Amino acid sequence: MPEPQNPANNEPRDELPPDDEAPGENPEVSGLFVQKPESVTATKGKDITFVAKVDSSSLTRKPAMKWLKGKWLDLVSKAGKHLQFKESYDRNTKIYTYEMSIIKVVDGDAGGYRCEVTSKDKCDSCTFEVSVQAAQVDQQDNILEAFKRSGDAGEDAGELDFSALLKKRKGKKPEEPKEEVDVWEILKAAKPCDYEKIAFQYGITDLRGMLKMLKKMKGETKKSDVFLSKLDPAYSVDHGKRIQLTVEVADPNATIQWLKNGQEIKPSAKYVFENVGNKRTLTINKCNLSDDAAYECVVGEEKSFTEVFVKEPPVTITKLLDDVHTVEGEKVVFEVEVSEEGANVKWMKDGDELNRETAGSKYRFKKDGKKHILIINEATREDIGTYYVFTSGGESKAELEVEEKELEVLQSIADLTLKAAEQAVFKCEVSDEKVTGKWFKDGVEVEASDRIKISHIGRTHKLTIDDVKPSDAGDYTFVPDGYALSLSAKLNFLEIKIDYIPRQDPPKIHLDASGSGNKNVITVVAGNKLRFDVEVTGEPAPTVCWSKGEQVVCEAEGRVRVETRKTLSSFVIDGAERADEGLYTISVNNPAGEDKAEIFVRIVDVPNPPENVKCTSVGEDSATVTWDPPSFDGGVPIKGYLMERKKTGSARWTKLNFDVYEATTYEAKRMIEGVLYEMRVFAVNGIGISQPSVSSKPFMPIAPTGEPTHLLVDDVTDTTCALKWRPPEKIGAGGIDGYIIEYCKEGSDQWVQANEEPVAKNQYRVKGLPVGEKMLFRVVAVNVAGRSPPAILSQAVTIREIMENPKIRVPRRLRTKLITLVGEKVNLVIPFQGKPRPVVTWFKDDVLLEDRSVGIRTSEVDTILFIRSAERTHSGKYTLSVQIENVSDSADIHIQVVEKPGPPINVVVTDVWGFNAALEWKPPKDDGNCEIIGYTIQKSDKKTEEWFTIYEHNRRPSCTVSDLVMGNEYSFRVFSENICGLSEVPGISKNTAVITKTDLLFKSPPFQEKDMSSSPKFTAPLLDRSVIAGYTVAISCAVRGNPKPKIIWMKNNMTIEGDPKFLMQNNQGVLTLNIRKPSLFDGGRYSCKAVNEFGEDSVECKLEVRVPQEKGDQRSEKLPTVALKCKSPQHITSCHNK
């Protein structure tokens, strides 16, 4: 496709313009790409390769690369024959090279692509375009083509286009020429809420690029009197992120309204409204798919529209579909569970999309949270096939097998024995009323006539024969249409003859082979009825005896019985069993003689189930199962076997074959890797199908892993070679059990296995190699599925040790002086390198270390110096020397063992003046093998003898103590301090400091009398009361004032005086009014007023008197008088009621 002429399309499609960026924190963008993929125009059917190079010199870990198409489609999940990815690393330049190859480009590969590289908090991305043109075909320039998906979704088209994969794969119809439509004009005139619908209609998948282009084509928006700035046409936000929609209004006091799809939005934790000046902001937190909608900001009559697109993360399938095996007419349910609620899925059958419009009422679709369900009502044979469900990040499939519904026989037809002119009625009943059938006599279809009538009423089928004739005798069979089933019975015609027979006639058994040595063989299917009629003649009537071996059968009733008539003896077995098989003898005798015949009854049955079903090997989507033939074949040769499988934990068995399979080894295919399966087998003979075998142990289809990667040589000696590798890129559900290492000489193809058991680590040292030989090595990964392809070294390795100069690698903490406490352990591990193994020597203070308390251990790669309990004598300089022949290397390590110091000496009080004292001392004799960093000084007086710290970390050997108390005698002590802490014992002063007393004259201040006069003030108010009539009540308050105030009690603003019902008390400023046995007339507002020469104050309350409620048991006791009192301050003089 040629490049569009509009320059606006040259900008990256997957980036919004500055005004369209969703608010929120963006990752730090840094220029990591050294080379970016370039946009190309590819020819259909050719291969193209895109190369991206990333500089990792500034990164702390390996960067992660993503190749994306369109909005969010991750191309790595589509890797295969059509898409191939490659990665390499250059150690010298520290540049990673990533390649993406598209094999045999198709129309579906056209569109916008993006590659993203991330590493911790750094990221970078770039976009590029792929246009596809047919060979030697001119294409018209059209800016819309830059956004269209490739369209036909054939088998090889659109492998990268998820939408195209979901299209129906029916035969292509020739496209009729369409009238060219200017989509941009339609978009400019449409509402933002219709953008997605129009984009889908015209095949536009790059919504960001479309919105960006549309904004530029619209140019400047029309100025509004209400809005200073309106909402952008559309916004895009990632799932789970937040977004802010901001408008600026002309009137800062304007009231706005936010709408979502025409419905008003209420403020909540999810939707937050902000008003700052003229700006109005709607913040949507934790966006999900339900927020993908049209939004409006309404101010009066004017509106501002926008559309929010939520970028949905890929939806994966967490519970796969199960295969279904059912019969016709049953309901079928396919259920799948996805990772996100409300996600969209597509159902397909054999490449055809299923939906309500095309399928009518045949299919029903349900959603239940994360579960999506496809329901097929009354399945038929036409529904057999493979059903697929697709999400944006995965797919699953299942097979539906529909068998013909088995017909159940409710009543079978019975044998009849009739005489001439009687009526014969054969009747049977089946489970399905709709089943029709035909009647046969001796294999010839019976036609209805005046004498023969055929009827079908409900589930009952009847054949009626009137006026039975000898020609009607024979075998009658009913065969239901469409079922491999037949019901048979026999019509025996009993003919009555009158013959003139001599009185003496020897008995005769009328069989074809009677009296001879041949055996008559009768074959009966187990469970069926055997009726064997034998005609016997003789005069007088002979006696008939049936026997099996030496056992005589003479019962007239029961499962095995004998029915005897005048000239007919019938041997009957109801429900034949295997034990009934054998040689039966019939003998007849009368006075004229005897006769005998033998009949062999052979019982055939369905076989026993196959035995020892087990899985012998597995593949990526297949498994090989073997079994042993059944122990009993039912008396009929085994024709073959039927196999079924199911997923472990499921109750649904799926048939694997409908035609019998003759071998005892079967390879089951079309299985899902990583899922546990079980299998069972049925044996089939000429009689029927056996019971199922015992299920095999669960097995899992697993593919061998990929080959190990990055195989390299880590070390070589004269007889060994150390190899390292990384795990395979593709491991699969089976995991890795270990690795096998093999080697051979260069030029030979005889590979020798180096390890008997697989090794779990990703390294191995091959031993016992010939010196100087060139050897090739390879590594294979093994699991339950077998060996992976080998990883082989690119060139042979010469088995010869490499000379390496000795070098000591001193750990960073040992490059400075090591300080440790006395008694602690010292353990120094110092690695070194060098080949062959160097000679290691330790020195202390330039003298060979021979101290037995210092242990030394040396290996091929490091040396260890350890001291179990450090002493101060272990301090010093330790020198490590490693030497190979004349080349050596050395390193010095300084160890200092320290402890707490001794006490200071000669602590003396050198001077005392006023409230001060001067101290001096000398440093301790033992500094603990480290520097003294300070002193701690404490004091104590002779009275309390308690020590108090004066100074800490005092660096000088002297100090001045101030603020001493006059008249006290003080002692002092000093602790020395180093990095280990304070000394255990202090240095105590030899003399004391005495602070002498001086004469003092006390002058008392003059006394001033305080004026206590104050106006009255109530300190506790009167409280509203509700009392019962007849019970004395008291109301109280508290007042203060000087001189004593005059107290006046009032009811409803009338002074209470001289009424004996009221008792007024004043106790130290607590005023109480007692009302004796109040009645309803005593209710009202009571107030108390206090007055003196400095002022007055008053309080009031409401008293409610209630009538007592009548009760069954009246209490005679009176409630005690209740008085509420509040004490006034002690200095207030008491006042009393006048």
From TrEMBL:
Organism: Oryzias latipes
Gene: mybpc2a
This protein's name: Myosin-binding protein C, fast-type
GO molecular function: actin binding
Family indicated by similarity: Belongs to the immunoglobulin superfamily. MyBP family.
Gene Ontology CC, one term: myosin filament
Annotated Ig-like domain residues: 27-131, 224-316, 328-401, 405-477, 507-600, 806-894, 1016-1106
Gene3D superfamilies: Immunoglobulins
UniProt keywords, alphabetically: Actin-binding, Cell adhesion, Immunoglobulin domain, Muscle protein, Phosphoprotein, Repeat, Thick filament
GO biological process: cell adhesion; sarcomere organization
